[in-house]
Amino acid sequence: MSGSATASESIIETDSLTDQRIVVLDFGSQYAQLIARRVREQNVYCQILRHDITAERLKEIAPKGIILSGGPSSVYEDGAPRCDPGLFQLGIPVLGICYGMQLTCMALGGKVENTPSREYGRADCQITDGSGLFADLPGSIEVWMSHGDQVSAISEQFEPMAKTSTCPYAAIRHRELPVFGMQFHPEVTHTPMGGQILQNFVIGVCGCQPNWQLSDFAELTIQQIRQHVGKRRVICGLSGGVDSSVVAALLYKAIGPQLTCILIDNGLLRKNEQALVIDEFTNHFKADLHVVNAEDRFLASLAGITEPQEKRRRIGHDFIECFKKEAEEIENAHFLAQGTLYPDVIESGADPDGPAATIKLHHNVGGLPDELGFELIEPLRDLFKDEVRRLGLELGLPEKLVWRHPFPGPGLAVRCLGEVTRDKLVVLRAADAIVIEEIEAAGLYRETSQTFAVLLPVQSVGVMGDARTYDNAIAVRSVNTNDFMTADWSRLPYDLLARISTRIINEVKGVNRVCYDISSKPPATIEWE
Ligand code: XMP
């Protein structure tokens, strides 16, 4: 390994991506990322920033518009997140959503009160001012409300734009400044005209040119990678998942033979996963691919281990060791490419202007520590997952790979409950492949977010032919979710479940019972361990 510096900052200069950006200040809303995605759907670049960023710093960033997100706090609570009131005087258009509207009113002389009952759900909204924000909308629209407090009085400086039966100021505008407030949530799909409202703000009010395009992003990123990497070598770990595949495809386009990919087969992959990756990155992209067959090592260190977190810890440790050893063999390797996405950057607090970490979803056991000594390249760190998928398609990756359901770093180990053994993995892998085959055949793979089989650590009695059996049980898990933080079980058709069950019991030796998991998250999690 020849690299020395480690970098947590991207080599990709976001500033050169566009001068037409909208920023969202995050007040702890579960919807801040959704707002940013909706804005990007208008082909306008959008970035999430800390709620307490100074007006001065905002002036330097020079966004075309500022959106203040919602948030769980009450504006009068001690320690409630605030914004720099100076931002309203910058002359940059501001849209406050829910909590963001309440802050706007407080800063500019309105009154916010706690409503007797929290309002949550759909409401009919009458638009009384059909200009600007509400241009080209009907006089009455359905909106989604989710708030405890609401604005009960506005100062002379504001005028109302919309109302509902319980909310006299569903939307307001400042008479002189380009400042707007909205009690409802335009970013959620339950506000059907929400996309048009955000478009009116971003394009109409802020005057953004809708020119943020993934193809431009890819082109610019490729150029920047070429410039930065020079003649040195980049290593990229492949997992079979979409993020690492897109990173590898992008790097291959940028530097071709200077890229070396490493696939660690830990023996915990799904059926045909290794073959799929090898085929894609040697036949299609013709990249230099090193496959490390490390099944024995991983299974040896998992022997006798039943505790899920201990399984994760051991797998993570072994992965780093295997990767390090392989990487040391690669001459002139200076960079390590990783598939860090924008939500990871936001949640880890890695962006100095970004919101502080609120919830960290997972310690990704596929992650590699800084001590490896490489300089990092994270070309996807400005993108959301759906953008990464679109980019993958633009780069020529096959649909099958691009639309793959997420697969956890510890792989089948957390779906093989209790101790992991080679024999159990054979059973689980075969059952899982049948679940996926059948769901694909039914045309429902893309309709579900994550679907898989779990091998339970119980035996139960059955009868096959005339003989009594005492065999394994498989649970089928299929969920629908937008963010993987909450999820509902998929309402799969009975006929499909029947086919899955019959095939698994007939074709997978050692299984005599199949159950369907009908628990939502919370309180259950998506994985069983
Ligand atoms: P849970 O089970 O917490 O999973 O509802 C939410 C999402 O995270 C994935 N997951 C993991 N991903 N390392 C990962 O890289 C892990 O240890 C891990 N555990 C769960 C899970 O598959 C789902 O998509």
TrEMBL record:
<comment type="subunit">
    <text>Homodimer.</text>
</comment>
<comment type="pathway">
    <text>Purine metabolism; GMP biosynthesis; GMP from XMP (L-Gln route): step 1/1.</text>
</comment>
<dbReference type="InterPro" id="IPR022310">
    <property type="entry name" value="NAD/GMP_synthase"/>
</dbReference>
<dbReference type="GO" id="GO:0005829">
    <property type="term" value="C:cytosol"/>
</dbReference>
<dbReference type="Pfam" id="PF00117">
    <property type="entry name" value="GATase"/>
</dbReference>
<feature type="active site" description="Nucleophile">
    <location>
        <position position="98"/>
    </location>
</feature>
<keyword id="KW-0658">Purine biosynthesis</keyword>
<keyword id="KW-0315">Glutamine amidotransferase</keyword>
<dbReference type="Pfam" id="PF00958">
    <property type="entry name" value="GMP_synt_C"/>
</dbReference>
<keyword id="KW-0436">Ligase</keyword>
<keyword id="KW-0332">GMP biosynthesis</keyword>
<feature type="active site">
    <location>
        <position position="185"/>
    </location>
</feature>
<dbReference type="GO" id="GO:0005524">
    <property type="term" value="F:ATP binding"/>
</dbReference>
<dbReference type="InterPro" id="IPR022955">
    <property type="entry name" value="GMP_synthase"/>
</dbReference>
<dbReference type="InterPro" id="IPR017926">
    <property type="entry name" value="GATASE"/>
</dbReference>
<dbReference type="InterPro" id="IPR025777">
    <property type="entry name" value="GMPS_ATP_PPase_dom"/>
</dbReference>
<feature type="binding site">
    <location>
        <begin position="239"/>
        <end position="245"/>
    </location>
    <ligand>
        <name>ATP</name>
    </ligand>
</feature>
<dbReference type="InterPro" id="IPR001674">
    <property type="entry name" value="GMP_synth_C"/>
</dbReference>
<dbReference type="Pfam" id="PF02540">
    <property type="entry name" value="NAD_synthase"/>
</dbReference>
<feature type="domain" description="GMPS ATP-PPase">
    <location>
        <begin position="212"/>
        <end position="404"/>
    </location>
</feature>
<dbReference type="InterPro" id="IPR004739">
    <property type="entry name" value="GMP_synth_GATase"/>
</dbReference>
<dbReference type="InterPro" id="IPR029062">
    <property type="entry name" value="Class_I_gatase-like"/>
</dbReference>
<protein>
    <recommendedName>
        <fullName>GMP synthase [glutamine-hydrolyzing]</fullName>
        <ecNumber>6.3.5.2</ecNumber>
    </recommendedName>
</protein>
<feature type="active site">
    <location>
        <position position="187"/>
    </location>
</feature>
<dbReference type="GO" id="GO:0003921">
    <property type="term" value="F:GMP synthase activity"/>
</dbReference>
<keyword id="KW-0067">ATP-binding</keyword>
<dbReference type="InterPro" id="IPR014729">
    <property type="entry name" value="Rossmann-like_a/b/a_fold"/>
</dbReference>
<comment type="function">
    <text>Catalyzes the synthesis of GMP from XMP.</text>
</comment>
<keyword id="KW-0547">Nucleotide-binding</keyword>
